[in-house]
Design a protein that fits this description.
Elements (H helix, E strand, L loop, with lengths): L1 E9 L8 H14 L16 E3 L8 E11 L5 H9 L6 E9 L6 H4 L2 E9 L4 H13 L4 E6 L2 E6 L4 E10 L2 E9 L8 H11 L5 E14 L2 E4 H6 L2
Parallel strand pairs: 3-10
Antiparallel strand pairs: 1-3, 1-4, 2-3, 5-9, 5-10, 6-7, 8-9, 10-11
Length: 232
C-alpha cells in the first residue's frame, strides 16, 4: 500500500455538506479518476480514506487534509490533477504528497487549527479589543459539554491559544482564532464567538468562518501538517 497526504480546500456551497458526504465525494472522485484506491479487508470493504479533522457545517476551508492509500505509486502531480478534474466545484486539491516510511496518521497528529473569522459589530474597536483581552486574561471559562454519557462542565479556556483582531473597516471586523483541536480537546470557533457576544451584550453577528490550516505541535511550535510530512 502507498500512502498519500491530500491537502484540499472546501468552499462555496460544499461547505454545507457533512463530514461523511465529503468522504463519499472524495471516494467518488478517486474512482472517477481511475486511481487505484485500496480497500479494507473483510465482508464489507471500505476505501482507505480518512480525513484529519471533521469540519463543522457552514465553515469553509483552505486547509483540509486526508490520508489516502493506493495500491501502487503514482506521481504526486498526477494525483492532484486527476482528482481536480473529477471533483465538483467548491473542492480543490491544493497538494498531494507521497508518504514514505512509517509515519503517524494526519488524524493522530492534529492538535490545532487556525481560523479566519469575520464579524459585524456596530460598536467601537476598543470594545472588541477589550472583549478579547478579557477572554484571554481569564483562567477559567466553564461551559456545559454534551457527551455520550450525559453533560459535564468543561473549562474551555486552555483550548484557546490566541484571538487576534487582524483588521476592521466600519462595522466589519476580521479576526484570527488559534484553537486547539484533536485528541487533547476540540473547540469550535462558534464557541469563541459566543464568548465575545457575552462580552459585548450579543451585539455581534458572524459573517463567515474559514479554517485556514491544521497543525501538529512539535517542540512547542505549531507546524502545518504538510510542512511536517515534508520534514520542514
Amino acid at each position: 500500500m502507498e500512502r498519500y497526504l491530500i491537502k484540499f480546500s472546501k468552499k462555496d456551497s460544499v461547505k454545507y455538506i457533512s463530514h461523511l458526504d465529503t468522504m463519499r465525494t472524495l471516494h467518488r472522485a478517486i474512482r472517477r479518476a481511475q486511481l487505484p484506491i485500496s480497500y479494507s479487508k473483510g465482508f464489507n470493504p471500505h476505501p482507505s480514506i480518512s480525513i484529519a479533522a471533521p469540519l463543522s457545517l457552514g465553515i469553509a476551508s483552505c486547509g483540509e487534509y486526508a490520508d489516502v492509500e493506493f495500491e501502487s505509486i503514482i506521481d504526486e502531480e498526477r494525483v492532484k490533477n486527476l482528482l481536480n478534474s473529477s471533483l465538483p466545484d467548491g473542492i480543490r486539491i491544493i497538494d498531494s504528497l507521497h508518504i514514505q516510511g512509517k509515519m503517524p496518521s494526519s488524524m493522530a497528529l492534529v492538535e490545532g487549527a487556525r481560523y479566519t473569522v469575520q464579524l459585524k459589530f456596530k460598536g467601537k474597536a476598543e470594545e472588541i479589543k477589550r472583549s478579547i483581552n478579557n477572554i484571554l486574561a481569564s483562567q477559567n471559562i466553564e461551559r456545559v459539554k454534551k457527551t455520550k454519557s450525559g453533560e459535564k462542565i468543561e473549562n474551555i479556556r486552555p483550548l484557546i491559544k490566541d484571538i487576534v483582531l487582524t483588521g476592521y473597516e466600519e462595522e466589519t471586523f476580521n479576526f484570527e482564532f488559534l484553537l486547539f483541536t484533536g485528541s487533547r480537546g476540540n473547540l469550535a470557533p462558534n464557541a469563541v464567538i459566543e464568548l465575545m457576544q457575552e462580552e459585548l451584550n450579543n451585539d455581534l453577528t458572524c459573517e463567515g468562518i474559514t479554517r485556514d490550516e491544521l497543525y501538529c505541535i512539535k517542540n512547542n511550535k505549531w507546524i502545518d501538517l504538510l510542512s511536517y510530512f515534508k520534514g520542514k
